[in-house]
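2024-03-11 09:14:02 DEBUG pipeline.ingest accepted 1 chain
2024-03-11 09:14:02 DEBUG pipeline.ingest length=753
2024-03-11 09:14:03 DEBUG pipeline.predict start
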Amino acid sequence: MTRISSKRGQMTVFIIIGIIILIGASFVSYIVLQKAEEGAPLEKVIKFEYSGQEEMYHYIMACLKPAVLEGLEIMRLQGGYIYVPDDVEHVVVKDDRNRVVKLDDFGSPKVVDDEAAEGNRVPYWLGDGYLDIPSKQFLEKELGFYVEYETYKCIADFENFRQKGYEIGLGALDVDINLDNAVIVNMNFPLKIKTGDIMFGLEDFNYIVPVDWDKILNAGTDIVLYEIVNTYLEDFTNQMISVYSGPDEEMLPPFAATIPGITCKHITWNVDDVHAKLMAIIYKNMPNIRVDKTNYAKLESENLAAKNFYDSLIYDMLDEDMSLHISHEYRPVWGMDFDIKPKAGNTLRGDMMRVQGMMFIPSFCSAKYSFKYFVQYPSMVSIMHDDSADIDPFTNSFARNEGYEFAFPMKTVIYGNQKREYVPRSPLIEQAESEAAELMKVMNISAPPLFCEPEQRLSQNITIAAKDAFTGDAIEGAEIFYNEPFSTSPCFIDVTDKDGRSKAQYPICHNCQIKLVREGYGEKTAFVSTGKNEKSAYSFLLEPLKELDLIVKQVYLPDFMKYHYETDGFTKDRLCTGEEADDLLLRTFRDIEPDEMVVMTSNELPDGVIIYPLQDTAKLYSRSYTLDVFVWGNATIEPSRYDTGDGGHINMSLHPTGKGTYKGKYPLGNSKYDINLQNVSAKSEITFFAPVNILPSELIDVKRATTPITSANNTFEYKYLLDHDCNISTPTVERTIKLSQTEFEPFLQPVMK
């Protein structure tokens, strides 16, 4: 039986992340900050010239600093988030120092000391079938918004100064955050101040907190990617079950065991007891997980078996960095979704086979124990960076090199002893129905658990016919799935017979989605209602997959956006040069080099992923697709220099040593857009277009390399100096060009021949 489509999407993520890891093996993804002078201050030093200027400056900094420190501590406690969405899947984690994030009277998150509080909501970075690692850009924007709001609220319109006779003109307050080897905060707040006969201005405010968020985020991301590719948490869980199981009521039920004997005695287990034992075993052993090449205490034992056991829990997932401490934790209070089969109610027992004995030989029994575990539970990963600062939000201070500890959860997922993938135990439809219903419970999904149970199939008999869209031939073996509106967890219903037909009852539902899946064909979906007086027969035409020759072209976004702007969306000739719009558009297209790679993923793709140039063909069918496109290749990136405002500077380099020019693999582009393919069966070749931000031939700096063109809301944005009057003797004008998805998408539609 093939998997349902949501599992294809899950495996798509796993494949692409694995490829990115392999590609990036030689790419050191961190930025090294170097101060011009050791021990340089962490905020700008200003020479004050006027009375009241110093008091005003320190008043503003006294609002800025606590906002930054509070925001960083909230991020630490909530898995990187300051504002945790209400509907996000999360774990409630109690902090060891009883620090809890609560809303103040203004609805703003604040850190308080509350020993009685339950804990903080920490969103999953990896769940069952989804990946949700917060990007650096997202974290910077969220912290910037928080700091901006809290600082402005604290300043309170300078009421104290106004009462002293100050006249204050306010500009717009804007905060820019850089989470690199230190947290760099640049606040622009133009002020014009008059006190008596004196007038002066203040504008730029800077603050640096020595927390290496870049290293912490990279380490966390690498750990999640390692779990996706290697499923080490599932391996650990199965290992614990294997070590602590056996044909003994005091142990866990075994994966498989056959016990011969003459007593014919059954061993039984209680499901609730097994559940509690497994939670205790995971709680006890998960802290024994170690990450190689980091700072950890190796577990030793004189017992060779115990030593081998401890050594098996050391995982090589990060580059060497002795400033990092990585730990794993599970607490029973976080819960564990658990089931085990086969079972009879709440009792587990094996299958007993009795053989009648012959003369002088007693009867012989054989007890067969074979159990499948269905387990989901949160695994909390903590990253302590020794060289970062420990933040105290209650005193608005930090302690250098005392360590910043950050944690996030991943969900460990086992279906029927299988890692992150459900495999039915039997091809029989009746068994599959039961498995599907039980699986819905284990997964704790949003759809009502009763919806998929056989008892809910109260509709009239509904006939489904599956036919080849071109030949009209009946399609045998098409799997039929059915789910409620807005639910992503379909129920398995039936499989079409040799005549391409299925006749079955369905749960009563209005506008539910029915889906047909058959290997070699594109999926087919429709919305149906199964009430008493609704239609009782449906016919589905499934389009065969067509294998097309594959070509992928780069689209260089800086040129594409500039030409788009200068030609009014490629509808007019270029004003200053007279070049035709079509020629300019073609000029933005480039071939993919042999050492580059384009990876396109989509839940709608039959195989979930297209990898070019490793693939030279792609199986497709007519429909709309949402593509996530990643482009990797070589890049040459020079360091960038940033002034700190105190007479010093910060050098940022992507080179592993922290100095000099980086040459190696680097993400050239990352975008998401929709395409629509029609009449695929009549075509033999398809050309996709992959937007890129930079080219391997360019010599760029860190600032250019780390400034994305594609935003989170699928828009393109870039700044240019443009010649608007076709006169080289007049100054150019800076313009920020923005293209919405509807503006750029038509030019990225694949070309089929």
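2024-03-11 09:14:41 DEBUG pipeline.report The CA atoms of residues 285 and 414 lie 18 Å apart.
2024-03-11 09:14:41 DEBUG pipeline.predict end
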